[in-house]
Design brief:
The structure holds two protein chains of two kinds. Chain A is mainly α. Chain A contains nine helices and no strands. Chain B is an alpha/beta fold. In chain B, helix 3 packs parallel to helix 5 and helix 8 crosses helix 11. Chain B is elongated and about 75 Å long. Classes of the chains: A mainly alpha, B alpha/beta. At the A-B interface, helix 1, helix 4 and helix 9 of A face helix 2, strand 6 and helix 3 of B.
Chain lengths: 237, 311
């Protein structure tokens, strides 16, 4: 466990808070857009989870993870830091999980902060005096879990792609391409199945089904990533 | 006699058809700087990877600190420091954080880490710049920090892979001095890969010479110079001419005789005596003012070994 904390500490320093105050520019812009500008544009509709809002929330996760996961894995190869790390006593599992946890955690915290800030901004600027929040509340929890699982999906996919990419740029380009292809395939698949699914399942059941499918894919990809992230293989690559 | 800190038997590693390490048998005692000399591509880095258990041998075995590299590499990683081919520093982190990371990895308590970081950075004259991002530093400073990182958890053995490659002579000399004093103070054993013969001569108690994966020779620099080097004599005086050179070249103990800046340079076979040659020079009209005898440098030994192996 202490190995995992060490890696989380390291990744936080190396990936997220590099370069002092400049580290806050990128998340600041995203949180500003998602937590202030868009809620003010959409007003009361912001609390009812329109499809565009859910898409944007998932986009935040994609945006941060696409940026960070390639840097975390392929970047260590490119900058020749991984070899030294592998020559230390820290376990392969701790190295990999530390990278995934920090990347996914960072993206997820951005989502949560943006959503809560949006609610706060709308209530503060609402002149009717009554306080409102996301309805139904369960859907907010659903969106948070959906965001976490999609973040994990991109992160695990990113790990597998980065392991076979010699540079950060190549890893990011491949990951973007794979994400696009995956998005189109899933979109077409859902579209084809939607009519028949709505006939036999309730809305809640469909939402739960989506989470279950995502969680299963995440578990499989994480298992493959852990099996692939081995010292002897990484040194030879 | 205590167990050697590194012991290899017929250690071999191939990459497809290429034999990177071929039948390497080696024993390195504790508490010394061992220099592993060889040209680029000789197999020096692969040897370190094998000794650290990062690569599995295709044949043979190795024990480091008594642990089998094939089955107990975790124990080796926990007890060794390594500066590999690249410094491996995180350039977006400060010098202090780089050392702190490896202190944490090696499970050092916070107070010990802090004290050790101060001790090492002070030794390498980097303490005042500990908060700076490493990416802004010169190569020499980075390498000093990387050496400090290998020592953070007071390991009994460290591996250094060409730590001064690409350095100017001044920076290399500074790192040699820092390293030598630290090694003496901490009593650490050093496995030093290098193709810098001056570095090897200055730092190493024993050296091994490797070429194309094969160990050609091993011993102290003096032993190697004695066994492989050509003893030289430089004779200062006047009246040296072609006739004297011809006479000298005809002598069986003379490998080479030539004039350089008016001085007579003679390379001798083995431990031949110079006296009869001096008599010959004087009898032939030469006037001898001074005789300087010297063993060959490690560089000459190295080149001789390379030439012999090529043949």
């Amino acid at each position: 466990m202490s190995d995992l904390w060490t890696m989380i500490w390291k990744e936080s320093k190396d990936l997220l808070f590099q370069g002092g105050w400049r580290a806050f520019i990128r998340p600041g812009i995203v949180i500003g857009m998602m937590g202030i500008v868009l809620p003010l544009q959409m007003r009361a509709d912001w609390f009812t989870f329109s499809p565009i809002e859910i898409t944007l929330v998932i986009f935040i996760s994609f945006f941060f993870i696409l940026n960070f996961i390639g840097d975390a894995i392929a970047g260590e190869h490119e900058r020749h830091t991984l070899e030294t790390l592998l020559a230390s006593r820290i376990s392969d599992r701790a190295i990999l999980l530390g990278k995934v946890i920090v990347t996914v955690g960072y993206a997820w915290i951005m989502v949560i902060v943006s959503m809560l800030l949006g609610a706060l901004v709308l209530n503060v600027t609402n002149r009717t005096g009554s306080w409102t929040f996301y309805t139904p509340f369960g859907l907010l929890i659903y969106v948070f879990i959906l965001s976490l699982l999609t973040s994990l999906l991109v992160a695990n996919g990113g790990v597998l792609i980065s392991l076979h990419s010699p540079t950060v740029r190549q890893a990011q380009q491949t990951l973007i391409l794979c994400t696009l292809v995956f998005g189109v395939v899933v979109g077409l698949g859902l579209n084809a199945m939607a009519a028949s699914l709505f006939l036999v399942l309730s809305n809640n059941q469909i939402l739960l089904l989506i989470l279950a499918v995502l969680a299963t894919i995440d578990a499989i990809l994480l298992g493959i990533a852990l099996a692939s992230f081995k010292r002897s293989r990484l040194i030879l690559s | 006699m205590s167990e050697p800190i590194i012991h290899t038997e017929h250690l071999s590693r191939s990459f497809d058809a290429v034999k990177a390490i071929d039948d390497l048998s080696l024993e390195i005692p504790a508490g010394i700087v061992f220099g592993f000399l060889g040209p680029n591509g000789a197999g020096k880095t692969t040897t370190i990877h094998l000794l650290l258990g990062l690569l599995e041998p295709t044949r043979g075995q190795a024990r480091v600190l008594g642990f089998d590299t094939r089955t107990q590499s975790d124990a080796i990683h926990a007890r060794c420091g390594a500066l590999l081919e690249f410094s491996g520093l995180y350039e977006r982190m400060s010098a202090e954080d780089n050392l702190d990371l490896y202190g944490r990895i090696n499970l050092m308590p916070a107070a010990n880490r802090k004290a050790r970081i101060k001790e090492l950075l002070t030794h390498f004259d980097l303490w005042e710049r500990r908060k700076e991002l490493v990416g802004k530093w010169s190569r020499g400073m980075k390498q000093k920090l990387a050496v400090a990182r290998t020592l953070i958890h007071r390991p009994p053995l460290i591996f250094l892979d060409e730590p001064t490659a690409g350095f100017d002579p001044q920076a290399a000399a500074a790192l040699h001095n820092d390293l030598a004093s630290l090694v003496e103070r901490e009593g650490v054993t050093v496995f030093l890969n290098t193709h810098n013969l001056v570095e090897a001569e200055k730092l190493c108690a024993r050296v091994g010479v490797i070429r194309q994966g094969k160990l050609l020779a091993v011993g102290s620099p003096d032993e190697l110079r004695g066994s492989k080097g050509t003893p030289q004599a430089e004779i200062i005086g006047t009246g040296f001419n072609e006739q004297i050179l011809t006479l000298l070249r005809a002598m069986p103990e003379v490998a080479l005789a030539e004039l350089q800046n008016g001085h007579l340079l003679i390379n001798l076979h083995g431990e031949s005596k110079i006296g009869p040659l001096v008599s010959l020079i004087v009898e032939s009209g030469g006037q001898v003012e001074e005789i300087r005898r010297d063993k060959a440098s490690l560089e000459e030994v190295f080149l001789t070994l390379m030439e012999e192996d090529k043949r």
